[in-house]
Amino acid sequence: MIIFSGGTGTPKLLNGLRKVIPEQDITVVVNTAEDLWVSGNLVTPDIDTVLYLFSDRIDLKKWWGIEGDTFRTHETMKSLGHRERMMLGDLDRATHIMRSDYLRDGHTLSEAIMMLSESMGIKAKILPMSDDPVSTTIVTPSGKRHFQDFWIGKRGEPEVLDVFQEGINRASISPAVLRALENDDKVLIGPSNPITSIGPIAGLPGMVDILRKKKVIAVSPIIGKEPVSGPAGKLMHARGIDVSSAGVASYYGEFLDTFIIDEQDTADAAVFENMACKVVSADTMMKSVDISVDLSKLILREFNQICLS
User: What is the predicted pLDDT for the residue at 203?
Assistant: First the structure.
């Protein structure tokens, strides 16, 4: 199975899925449009969250970073007058240094992540969406900002006028992702931000055409009129997309077969009746790993039904 993932929401689902199917049968295509260079090294936040999950090192209280990490390097640099764009943990920083050294040695990002995965003993395939640079830019009244500068630097507070991915039209789907898509017909779109996490993956040239030929299930990251977490609502509004599960389903509409919404989300029932995709209700909040397992089992049953139809 191929899963499209960002750094929030989807990793919780992956934590259940890895307990239902063998990890070596899981391929995760991860957003790279939020990557940026910090203190001389490339930080790939969404990829790192997935790496730390599958290597059993993730901080499950925050759902990012490494459990028990310290920030002495960051704090020392700050005391000396250097302000980093992101607060990086000491153990986390080792990952960034290794990845950046692989890149400086001439390896692609996909190769660098493969080597990191091997070093961490990860059995699942973790694939960057592209080896080419793509950057999510947030347009605010005071100007353009990288997504991380908006979300971390400004805590997501500025008004958002527009969102776009710089470099997306020049980027290519990575060869490793293309091979994975050639060999698997099932694509699961996790409950990550549709604009800045899933949108860049689907926005790569040629990806929508590929997805139209696949069996695609997506899990909504919205309940009612609010995202489960993160700035998805504000970003969807800036794109002119209704902040609702129905809005997400319409955004994925070109390639969506089945859409899973939260069992509490009944506001769009009438709207969904007119959609081509099948709509299924479940507990998508995933407040425990058992709930994530139950949701994963439901998804597998839905894929089986699509395959039989």
Answer: 97
